[in-house]
Design goal:
Bound molecules: flavin-adenine dinucleotide
Strand content: 15-25%
Shape: globular
Structural class: alpha+beta
Number of helices: 10
Mean pLDDT: 97
Low-confidence stretches: none
Distance between the termini: 25 Å
Order of helices and strands: HHHHHEEEEEEEHEEHHHH
Number of strands: 9
């Protein structure tokens, strides 16, 4: 088994690491404080080809692979977890859904600018009554002549509130099969379509510079060919790309955990108590040793899942392992990082306080820890 990265993967990781050090880390605390969205940083990420890493050049991408994309996600998230989330939603979920299921025309219109980083994407699965049970969607789409008429509300939608967000990909219930049976379809709804409005912007505990909005559809009419993929396959399609989203949340978690580790390791070697740096007390250095080991393990898990994806191997189980382990790991690592800082760690002036608040969300988005355990349990049975 060869664990070495290719030259290209190493190059992408190095580029993203340097970009994060120079452009993101110096700004992250201020962005979190003001809740401002860094359009200039996104523009630079676009210039570097970051949003399109795994897509072919003919669709605006860089022609790389999913391992590279996830190495990039880890680096970017080390600087700012909200930028990692933006990238995950845009590239791993929305752009990928367009790439895998879109028609040639849909790819040209929406995937190309997204892969180039000129436009940002959003996906709308969650509703007030359909959270973990996303198949319970109440949003409806009715075919009227050559148009779909969409009605319903989606909640907690990342990215759609941004000026450069172009579309939201939504699931909706339809009675459109010949037998009149209800199915779930997926639709591309461009921002600015009459009947599509943004509801409230949520006031969150953390991730301040990530835009999270409610989305409301009231007799929102879109052309018939804005259906994405096969009729009746919408939910399955969404779940398929969420496998990749889960690998991405694994990588984002590892990035944030590294930020925690780096801060704690540095502080422990500088902070002197009882006449020596606290690092030299076993109670502290054992925590740091565990942090490093768990980060390494979580990285191996997301890289294995990404490698399986690149090699067209089934990876639902590995994606859930990576998401579950990494997102639970980062919460422990963030808590230990605050602990190692003592009282300083509780002060907003120290980044670990921000990391700690940010870590929790990773166990909730793209399927909670409990849902990952359900997916794992089901797949173990299926594979037995
Ligand atoms: C900041 C933020 C950004 C988000 N971005 C997006 C986005 O871009 N697009 C989108 O579609 N959604 C998004 N979400 C929604 C997110 O995916 C959901 O919050 C998540 O899937 C959980 O759904 P819920 O909040 O309704 O919780 P619920 O489903 O109500 O769950 C409540 C609790 O019950 C548990 N539970 C539920 N069912 C089971 C079960 N069968 N077995 C065991 N435990 C169970 C859950 O794990 C959880 O602990 C975002 C959420 C947040 C907070």
């Amino acid at each position: 088994m060869d664990f070495r990265l290719t030259e290209e993967q190493e190059m992408i990781r190095k580029m993203c690491r340097e970009f994060t050090d120079d452009m993101i880390i110096p700004r992250a605390a201020e962005l979190d404080r003001t809740g401002e969205y860094p359009y200039d940083i996104i523009a630079k990420m676009a210039e570097l080809g970051i949003m399109g890493i795994p897509f072919p050049e003919e669709y605006g991408g860089s022609g790389g692979d999913w391992v590279s994309m996830h190495l990039c996600l880890e680096e970017i998230s080390r600087g700012d977890v909200t930028l990692g989330a933006l990238l995950d939603v845009t590239t791993s979920v929305v752009a990928q859904e367009l790439y895998v299921f879109g028609t040639e025309e849909q790819k040209k219109r929406w995937l190309v600018p997204m892969a180039k980083g000129l436009e940002i994407g959003a996906f709308g699965l969650t509703e007030p009554e359909a959270g973990s049970d996303a198949g319970a969607t109440r949003t409806t789409a009715v075919l009227a002549g050559d148009e779909w008429v969409i009605n319903g509300t989606k909640q907690f939608i990342t990215n759609i509130g941004l000026d450069n967000a172009s579309i939201v990909i939504v699931t909706a219930r339809c009675k459109c099969k010949e037998d009149g049976k209800e199915v779930i379809n997926t639709f591309i709804v461009p921002k600015g379509t009459p009947g599509f409005t943004l509801g409230k912007k949520y006031d969150k505990m953390s991730w301040m510079s990530s835009a999270t909005n409610e989305v409301i559809f009231e007799n929102c009419r879109i052309p018939r060919d804005y259906l994405l993929g096969e009729e009746g396959e919408g939910f399955a399609q969404h779940l398929a790309v969420l496998d990749t989203g889960r690998i991405s949340i694994g990588a984002v978690s590892v990035g944030l955990a590294r930020a925690c580790f780096e801060a704690a390791f540095s502080h422990a070697r500088q902070r002197v108590q009882f006449g020596k740096p606290v690092y030299f007390f076993q109670g502290v250095s054992f925590k740091i040793a565990d942090m490093a080991m768990h980060i390494e393990l979580a990285r191996n898990m997301y890289l294995k899942a990404a490698w399986m994806k690149d090699n067209n191997l089934p990876h639902t189980l590995e994606a859930s392992y990576a998401k579950l382990f990494a997102s639970e790991m980062v919460e422990r690592v963030a808590s230990d990082a605050v602990q190692i800082h003592g009282g300083y760690g509780y002060m907003n002036e120290y980044p670990v306080s921000r990391y700690y608040k940010g870590a929790k969300l990773l166990q909730i988005v793209e399927g909670t820890s409990e849902i990952q355990r359900l997916v794992i349990g089901r797949n173990l049975l299926k594979n037995s």
